[in-house]
Amino acid sequence: MIHQPFRAGLLANAIRFGLIGLMGTSPLALAEAAQARADIRTYEIAAGSLNTVLSRFAGAAGAAISFDSAQLRGRQSAGLHGQYSAEQGFAAILSGTGLQAVRQGNGSYVLLERSGADVLELGATSVTGTSLKGLATTEGTGSYTTGVTSTATKMNLSIRETPQSISVVTRQRMDDQNLTSITKVLEQTPGVTVSRDAGERFNIYSRGNEISKYQFDGLTTHVENATQNMTQNLADMSIYDRIEIVRGATGLMTGAGRPSGVVNMVRKKPTKEFQASLGGSVGRWDDYRGQVDVSGPLMESGKLRARLVGAKQDNDTFTDYYSQKRDTLYSVVEADITSSTTVRFGIDYQKYEADGQTGVPLFYAGGRQTNLPRSTSVGSKSINPEYETTNYFFNLDQALENDWKLTMGGSYMDVDREEKNILAMVSNRNQFIDPATGNYPAERIDKITNPLNQKSAAINLQGPFALFGREHQAIIGYEFSRYKSHYKSYGYASGTMNLSNANQLMSQVIYTPSNDLDIINDYYVIQRGYYAALRLNPIDRIHVILGARTSDYKYESIFDIPPSNYSSKSNYKKSGEVTPYAGLIYDLTPEQSIYISYTDIFTPNNVTDINGKVIEPQVGANYEAGWKGEFYDSRLNANVALYQIKRDNATEVAGYHALNIAYYRAIDGMETKGIDLEIAGEVLPGWNVSGSYSHSRSEDSSGVRKATEHPVDSVKLWNTYGFSGNWQGLTIGGGARWQSKMSMLPITVSNIYYRAVQDDFVVVDAMARYKFNQHLSATLNIDNLLDKKYYTAVGSVGYGYYGTPRNATFSIRYDF
After folding, report:
1. What pTM did the predictor assign?
2. Which CATH superfamily includes the segment(s) 251-815?
């Protein structure tokens, strides 16, 4: 397919050529590549159903074709072998079927009866090939981007049409880089940093703030760091089609929350045609993984369909005595109740279990920073955290007259967390290793229980309307969420451990008998919100999004330490909090636009000051402006964003009570400024790229930098190239991640200054895949190719977390 050339202004061209230059090509090569799409190619497509053969050819040929699935039902094809143009290939595949592929004015094809009229009324339509316009699902597209996203506004808009920064990690990207967990995905996401302050507790940051809102198919759930039960950050990627990340404030869609963004994990859906895959992998440190995915109709009409996904992983790690297990199961049924009504019911289950603990102390007593081996463990191998998470969900999509649509959804998340035999170095920034003896202060907890559940529900109505002779869009909706967590710990003891033997206390000082209750920590959060938004199109090139949300918010927490007679309670309630939103998009050309957007910030705080009083909510504003480009039938997206976040009542640790419980102070005039640049998609036939640069710096009103434990600058590059001709079937890829220096907030203990620093570093990854035929493929991934030793996090509690050393994973996959 021949695509229109870029029609860019000076800024757009500079960004486009600069980012593509990083990938090693030139504007001339792009122009030549666009013409090359029409060239004759070699195809080796095995026999199968006509639907499958036609779809595989369209994808390989770079051609979009629309057809009624009923036209192909029950028909078989001998496949295609040899050299063909797109039109020749379609003609050969359809020979003798009475069907023909008719080329349209936009370059796409429509499947018609040879003896029929010029117009065919299409029923359920399948679209495959290069065009992603209007297509949200990424599975099977082979793309690194998507045609539609609704996470930012709930409206089905392209990335270019949305006046906020959006990144999408597609199914193809996850498969190419072996991104099997959400933290691996977010580590590759532009403008996002992954940190941690405990073995199984990851902290995800964007634009100077922690991301605390995670969505499943658009339904919002909450993460509360203090509970240590952050099961969303342990999610396995086997059941997801794509991960959408909106950076910046999302108050219109999520209500109260930090101005960091939201992560939307979109599950795979059942397919009307049968498909199945079976895969397995083996990697360094006895890393074994298996996965099965089966989808298809449960009746011949395809109106009832289902999908079943299962995955199991068992691995040791580079840390001594630290291993992990994951079991994932996902089942979903979808039904077309009527021609306009679709319902979906599903359950996903994940069990995560670890033995041992990762993380190393950052300091020796005296202030010197440690440089311990990456395999060092300061926790017992008997530590055993377990998380069992079950999500129940349903969705209903109802098409109405005049292209309006009603959408309803609900979910219930149940998490059972239990941790036993905890024996490790004290998680306290004031505790250090004795450099002479290797001794360090340790603590023991017999057991932690932490059940957690969340309820979410949403309903919205959206569609077009006419005003002053032009078409516009409107949406109105309601959302509800409830978060409830109950934490208890039992049997506390303190003593001393040694680096040479991290499995037993050298001495114990027990101040409460084992199995007696030590800590209670409860959280209860309820939020209700009503929102409405308009997308107005006053003239051809200008689009305005105006919206507002009114929220009711209730927050309660309890923190008790019975043996010490310590008790702290906090609560906050707010009704009718209004969050306005405004965005303006101006189309420079049909492929490019510039935009500005604004939204209010309202974030209730859950921490107390030195007097035990809950700090007032964070309030402020989020401003963003940028340029976006969408090229090659939506298969390539590029964007530049400048943003500024202003907040009052931001918080930071001010000190510690006698019981080592932190207290906080409010910061007024906190300001975060930054820039995001990103390009994602196909820049040449068979060449997928993802490249980004992010800069984010937070300062208080005096100009003092905050959030130093996160880098100011980062660059993330990844690309793959699939060969054709004699090398057809081979795909190679590689990339690098660079980030600037980060450091732990310095502390002074007994007049000794402690400050941990991780200088800037680069991590290089590579992959290669060979597809033996249409069914069987094998992939080799090598992570940290240069074996760089670095910290992924320098935590506030005196722990550091090493990045994974060089390792290789070999995987094999069979598609039925």
Report:
1. 0.84
2. TonB-dependent receptor, beta-barrel domain (2.40.170.20)
